[in-house]
Specification:
The protein has helices spanning 18-34, 52-65, 93-105, 173-183, 199-208, 242-247, 252-260, 275-281, 296-308, 312-323, 329-332, 336-346, 356-360, 372-380, 384-394, 403-416, 421-433, 441-448, 450-464, and strands spanning 5-8, 37-40, 72-73, 80-81, 109-112, 115-118, 123-129, 134-140, 143-148, 152-157, 162-165, 188-192, 215-219, 222-223, 292-293. The protein has 465 residues and is of the alpha/beta class. The model has no long low-confidence stretch (mean pLDDT 92). It binds one RNA strand of 75 nucleotides through strand 6, strand 10, strand 11, helix 4 and strand 15.
Length: 465
RNA sequence: GCCCCCAUCGUCUAGCGGCUAGGACAGAUGAUUCUCAUUCAUCAAACCGCGGUUCGAUUCCGCGUGGGGGCACCA
């Protein structure tokens, strides 16, 4: 059995979005599943729209997602891996000329209006095209049969010669795509369904070169979620860009897991799976035929479940990467032990890393905001001020060495007043953090330390007196 | 306009002739927890329509309808 060789062929003309990432992922999964080769080819023939920044974004995004390529440009921008290169179309001009020559010599291409056209085989006739309002030459070339691994048998007509080299001398997409896939010995073309209609052109080109076409597998597209409107997910849609998730410090494995589930499933009810398991189970026949709508909420949930199970060290490093980019981040990290303690307390409570700033802000400054609504609610209940005063009085004698000790201390105080833990918890939390959502009060006390807690309680009491 | 693909809860999906149509996200309710989250339990929620084929269709076929994509000297 011949080796599986698949490729992902993006063009660096725009931001790297969800749809591209999913196509890359499916190719990568198939390569890894079959023990084949995953090729990255850069389709940078559109000189007007190309940019090095977008090229770098492709490397960065793939790397971040963990989709490593066996052949293709080196992400450093210098050199490349693999022996079928160059892997950037802008450097493959000579190959295209050579293949153009082949068609010309075989009588399968001709020049017209300064451009080179691919010549279909079959009887020719002229017909007036109502839509284009002009007479066009049609060719009865017979049906093209595509045996798609996902779609099944698809039949299409290709009945007009088409341009393969523009009059400015540049080859067009269909031509370079096919030539590259031939010369790179690509065995399976896994790409979006939007290319299904182009496939008949490609098949004709393969025939023109006398080459058996590879296996085609057209995967469903990712559509906008109902709130976003209709149609295909585009770069402008919220949540469409990989960069966005990177900046929000999502876990790449969560995004990969979610993306894998868009158009594919393992056949049982499993959803959350490590990448290794997906690689093991992924196969082309398991891919769906219908388009999927993007759901940011499910992605967010996936991200949360991954976040919850991260080992402490990984979570800390994620937190550090996040704080490094925050305005007051450096200040927050000056005391490493303190920073770690705060982060680990926050980990089981947050849904995404980018919530950390807001969630832990009061740990790193005494000048934190007090939520007015929460304040009103808490202060209206019982004799909050009295509870606060009692707590301040009891504080110096309390043992702050552990959560359990602090809990015992507050409970002892509560019992002495014939009250419950909760009578002190809410107001203490408000005084110390300014809000009602946060880690356990005992943990907060312990991490903040006795002095700071006392100061905050006193300051708050004074402010409401 | 022409061509191609698709069709199960709001969303992602399981189902491959006979099922109380299953799971997950989101939603609702309740329980647990010092708050908030988490977690747990419960509830609500779908086979696009019409014709066939068949003893029997969500499942197979046709037609409609709906959704998506493609028809360039863009990629």
């Amino acid at each position: 059995m011949s080796q599986v060789r698949v490729r992902f062929a993006p063009s660096p003309t725009g931001f790297f979005h969800i749809g591209s990432a999913r196509t890359a992922l499916f190719n990568w999964l198939y390569a890894r599943h079959t023990g084949g080769t995953f090729i990255l080819r850069i389709e940078d023939t559109d000189q007007a729209r190309n940019s090095e920044a977008f090229l770098k974004l492709i490397y960065d995004s793939l790397t971040w997602l963990g989709l490593d390529w066996d052949e293709g440009p080196d992400p450093t921008g210098v050199g490349e891996r693999g022996t079928f290169g160059p892997y950037r179309q802008s450097q493959r001009g000579a190959i295209y000329q050579q293949y153009k020559q082949k068609l010309l010599e075989a009588g399968r291409a001709y020049e017209k209006d300064g451009a080179i056209w691919f010549k279909l085989l079959g009887e020719r006739y002229k017909i007036f095209d109502d839509h284009r309002k002009k007479e066009v030459e049609k060719v009865q070339s017979g049906p093209v049969l595509i045996d798609d691994k996902i779609r099944g048998k698809v039949e299409r007509q290709e009945d007009e010669d088409f341009v393969i080299f523009r009059s400015d001398g540049n080859p067009v997409f269909h031509f370079v795509n096919v030539v590259d896939d031939i010369t790179m010995q690509v065995s399976h073309i896994i790409r979006g369904e939007d290319h299904l209609s182009n496939t008949s052109k490609h098949v004709r080109l393969y025939e023109g070169f006398g080459v058996t076409p590879p296996v085609f597998a057209h995967i469903p597209l990712i559509l906008k979620s109902p709130e976003m409107g209709q149609g295909k997910m585009s770069k402008r849609d919220k949540g469409a860009l990989i960069e966005e998730y990177q900046q929000r410090h999502f876990l790449p494995e969560a995004l990969v897991n979610y993306l894998a589930l868009l158009g594919w499933n393992p056949g049982d009810n499993r959803e959350k799976m490590p990448s290794a398991d997906i690689v093991k189970l992924f196969d082309l026949p398991g891919v769906n035929q219908s388009n999927a709508k993007f759901d940011g909420r499910k992605l967010a949930n996936m991200n949360m479940t991954y976040l919850l199970e991260q080992p402490a060290e990984r979570f800390i490093s994620l937190a550090k990467a996040y704080f490094a980019k925050q305005p007051a981040g450096a200040a927050a990290m000056t005391n490493d032990a303190y920073f770690r303690a705060v982060m680990l307390m926050a980990q089981p409570k947050i849904k995404s890393v980018d919530e950390l700033g807001a969630y832990t802000g009061y740990f790193f400054t005494d000048d934190f905001p007090i939520d007015a609504k929460v304040k009103e609610k808490v202060m209206a209940k019982g004799e909050a001020k009295a509870r606060l005063a009692e707590l301040i009085a009891a504080l110096p004698a309390m043992d702050f060495s552990s959560d359990a000790a602090i809990e015992a201390g507050i409970k002892t105080l509560a019992e002495s007043q014939a009250l419950g833990f909760g009578d002190y918890q809410a107001v203490a939390r408000l005084a110390v953090s300014g809000t009602n959502a946060g880690p356990n009060i005992t943990g907060m006390f312990r991490v903040l330390g006795q002095e700071r807690v006392k100061a905050r309680l006193e300051r708050f009491l004074a402010s409401v007196a």
